[in-house]
Design a protein that fits this description.
By secondary structure, the protein is an alpha+beta fold. The chain has helices at residues 32-36, 66-76, 83-92, 95-103, 107-111, 118-128, 146-161, 166-174, 184-197, and strands at 4-12, 16-21, 24-29, 44-53, 58-63.
């Protein structure tokens, strides 16, 4: 089992990184938050990893924190949730955002995440309530904090469909002001302004 990886970042893809260690390039799938914060090419990078062994492949998934990795592993334990959906969820918000959605039974926000429908959202809430530590979460009335996360995930998908890389989309979403309205069209305009300023 490969639990972590330190090496030189040699490529950033739309959903993965390639990290070279000892002359070997490791393809590591990662959530958008990791892709957006991984730094420049040819710099040293460290990731906590989760390895999945399949009959036809060995797959590595990379995370910035142990908390992210633990949440990814919890997500995989939910029936019907695979690595792709797990990454999609982790791209939609921080571990606290996801735990808050579960704690508040916010299936509407969860269902907005690409790859998750209403039934999967309900299953996530049902199965994760007993597995995640839901104490000490920031309080938000009616899932106010969770909604922007799902909106941001939708916005990032939209930017990628417009031809921006996943890393560029993440950077543009991160540049949005905290008080940005919960309106996809307005957020898109603000994100496109970011590209005009860089």
């Amino acid at each position: 089992m490969i639990a972590s990886l330190r090496g030189t970042l040699i490529h950033i893809g739309s959903d993965h990184l390639v990290i070279e260690t000892g002359g070997v390039g490791w393809l590591v799938y990662a959530p958008r938050s990791v892709l957006g914060a991984c730094g420049a090419l040819n710099e040293t990078i460290f990731l906590y990893t989760h390895m999945i062994v399949r009959e036809d492949a060995l797959l590595l998934y990379g995370f910035q924190t142990l908390e992210q990795r633990a949440l990814f592993e919890s997500l995989l334990s939910v029936s019907g949730v695979g690595p792709k959906v797990g990454l999609s969820l982790l791209s939609a918000g921080s571990p606290d955002d996801i735990r808050l959605m579960v704690a508040q039974n916010n299936t509407t926000a969860l269902a907005r995440v690409p790859g998750i429908g209403k039934k999967t959202a309900e299953r996530l809430v049902l199965e994760l309530k007993g597995k995640l530590d839901l104490k000490g979460l920031p309080t938000a009335a009616g899932g106010v904090a969770a909604a922007p996360s799902a909106l941001n995930a939708e916005l990032a998908e939209l930017l990628v469909s417009l031809g921006y890389s996943s890393a560029e989309a993440s950077a543009a979403v991160a540049s949005l002001p905290a008080d940005a309205p919960e309106d996809l069209e307005v957020r898109l305009r603000l994100a496109l302004r970011y590209f005009g300023s860089v």
